[in-house]
Amino acid sequence: MSKKNKKAPAAAAAASKKIKIEKPAAAKNGKQLSPSAAALTMHEKFADLFVISMLSIFPIYMTDKLFHIRTDRRLYFVVTTFVMLFFIAATYICGIDKDRKPTGLFKMTVPDIAFISFTVIALISACLSEYGEEAFTGSEGRDSGFYLIAVYLLCYLLLSRYFRYKEVVFTVFAVMASAICFLGVLHEFSVDPFSLISEIKQEQQKDFISTIGNINMFSGFVCVAFPACCALAATAKDTLSTTFYSVTVGFCTMGLLVANSMSGYFGVTAFLALLFVYCCGNAKRFFHFWIIISTIFLSMKVLRLISLIFHDEFKNLEDVSRFLVFDKLIFIPIAVSAAITVGMYFVYKKFGEEHSPKWIQFTAAGIVTLAALSILGVFIYFSFIDKETDLGSLKKILRLNDQWGTHRGYAWIRGVELFHSNGIKNILVGSGPDTFGQVIKAVYREDMLKRHGSVFDTAHNEFINYLVTTGALGLISYTTLVVSVIVRAFRRSHYDAAFIVVVLPVIGYIAQSIFSLSTPIITPFLIVFLAVTEAHSRKFDAECAEAVKE
Question: Rounded distance, CA 283 to CA 280, Å?
Fold first, then answer.
């Protein structure tokens, strides 16, 4: 580790202890200051290989095309997690790298305690559940019972101790995600090169896309891949890398458009808002941010050109996607973002990577916070206070009712009712992991059939789902896990840009999960990114402590 890189952890550690210390020159100039560049230990190699596998093979693994995709992905994740455990354990048994064990292997951080607490609460909930077997296996839900939660914890504990950040791992993900999104574009125009969709019943084909399967799951995947590609582009070190990652941003944009999901648009908006705040930190990142925005708008028109090639014979573009792809008004933001990008190029050339004054980031954060609170306030007002004003077409967005969000509102409202009316045991620890379907069917089955012609087996909101199935204690521990990982990463991102690459996918996933559900097809991505983010925090803190000692 160079002397310059040693100073950065020292500065971070001292700053966290409120000790006034001058930032090193590298930190002032915004350069990436990652943990030690020493060769990977054998333990770390196995952990990194597991992450590469999860980000490249996992999203395309299937045994019978899309017909058993949930089972296939669940088994792949479980088996590879235990394979990782086996090989890491074998390195200890064989005495490999015995002098290079991770620092603080048994140190418990807030995310560690929260995840362990969540798993313990899920176990108690399953043991006390009226639906015991289903709560352990998830067989009547989405295969997300207690045993899968336990494997999630195992994966998290291993990766958070042994993973070491290498950009190439996420470059592989960016390439794979681009291919998966482009395949989704081809499927939108009824081009099926691997015959993944053609064997599905004709009336169901519009609901399946690419190698991810259900179109809502595909939207969830995009909300994990898109942030990673944008973060890589924003923090790229040179022109070639910026160009390459911007191309992957373009593919992800087209994937978002064909996903046709409001949850996807919400997830992308959320992470872009936080990326905006981060990129205000210096002129280079802000220049890259506007390259990303320009690429996003330009990609909408690239999809329009692709549509022309296929004579506009698309399957399922909804109103928002159709507007973004076909409406000529989109040329206005293309021109505006391009002009800002050019302007920011000259600003970057003048100021380089020097950190911006803190008030700029604080102002950006204030604007984003104010916008978010305003939108939330309007939604709350028209949903719970003023239920009479005619909102026209905005009603389906701004007023929560049974029809809101393709009947998600029905599941949300009934889910909250079930939570506070099911007794003290269910309020505390819930009905058992992945048993939302049994609980809601026991009370509202006939009503759901009468209103919708089908029954819900999930709340289509992970937080409400956990509230009902693992109770208030489960939801608190899950929320603590996610928030603490995000906060720890952002506090350290000032010294190391790699934190943005690993934490933005967490934010994208969480934002879209407000409208979606936990499933072995997508949720393992959340676990992996939570773990690698925490791993980077732990290693960064360890080097801070070492630098302070020196």
Answer: 7
